[in-house]
Amino acid sequence: MNPSRQSHPSSFKLSLIAMGFAALAACDTGPAVITSARPLNDNDQSGPALQIVQPELVGMDTERLHRVTQAMQEYVDAGQLAGVVTMAARDNKIVHFEAVGQRDIAAADPMATDDIFRIYSMSKPITGVAMMILYEEGKFKLSDPVEKYIPEFANLQVANGEDANGNLTTEPPAHKMTIRELMSHTGGLSYGLFSQSKVDDMYNDVNLLDPNSTLQDMIDKLAEIPLRQQPGSQWHYSVSVDVQGYLVEKLSGQKFGDFLEERIFKPLNMIDTDFHVPEEKADRLAQVYGYGPDGALVAQEGFGGANNYLVDQTFESGGGGLVGTAMDYMRFAQMILNGGELDGVRILAPLTVEIMHRNQMPKSVPGIGLGARGTTFGLDFAIIEDPVEAESYSKGEFYWGGAAGTWFWIDPVEDLVFVGMIQQFGGAVQVPDVRGKSRQMVYQAIMEPKQ
Questions:
Q1: Strands (E), 300-339
Q2: Model's pTM, two decimal places?
Q3: Is the pLDDT of residue 317 over 90?
Q4: Domain tally for the chain?
Q5: Domain boundary among 348, 383, 418
Q6: Element spanning 51, H or E
Q7: Whether residues 127 and 30 fall in one domain
């Protein structure tokens, strides 16, 4: 064990709830021990916000909720994951907060609940909130064309095929990409990662998300690349949230990271969320893993090791650049579930938050694809429209996840938030279904449903 980690916050025992990530075994019947980096909050409308309570106090069953821990421990024991942190809150109270496995296998360093994770695309909802803060200030309308604020996009064309020589051909957009389309991945942009086309090739040729470049560099490159498809014609996962980060800079007059710190992280006491991990917290950054040819876990950074998270980032990626802890993300997500407020601090108005998890896609686009049936998209959140098709529980649940396996969901029907953190690449074939399994285990622990 890394001796420096012994200076992490003291452990405390949950005498009322057995959430056993750190101490689970098949024969385990005792309560778990949780380590936490931050003090519990001290006020909300019905008592301390995000206070750890006995699950029965909010209509859940302790023994059944312990199955979340058991399921995650089984993945660790099977060698499929190195370590996991999971966290659940209902009625603004924490009912589950556990860590199992190891932060770093080679160092034999146990996972702790305050460890720091690359959250990748879970950065996107945070960027969306930054945009909506500016929306509330009247800085833009969702129906505005993006080029109104990014004039470099004024002459964007749309790819429509190839000529006899195999060269890309283009046509004018049927309409200008709007900010609503930008925030719902229907604006015509791509990623260069999740589809194969000449436009995707162009993204890769110019290294669009070069970590050593700036947001302005990204915009200048995008301005020279046609849209992959007509705006509003389909949902296609894209760099649109990185463009939103640039928009935050243009609309606010601040550096993107400074805006996030001043308007979101500091007010919400998200003390470990940033675009990099400072030296004094480096021993809390969880190692990320892939799978070797034999299926064994192999320590490796994602995306070719392009990002060194231990140094300040030049490229502040609103689409995937943040790191943070489970508690930090829980505070963010609970604020959203609370209608934009946490601990008496208001980030957004309730109706603004409602806009974010309302279907914003064109009526001609029925869903997001990606195998996510019964699912539409709001403003930087996916939304469960049909729980039966989605094999979920509540209509209106909204969620997203990150490339290295992190996941969360917000259920306004059951007043529930769940946050899960792993650091594992490998795709759906190799990475276990932590998202589906955790959802099953959490909902079967609800004894007093609200619907």
A1: 323-324
A2: 0.90
A3: yes
A4: 2
A5: 383
A6: strand 51-52
A7: no
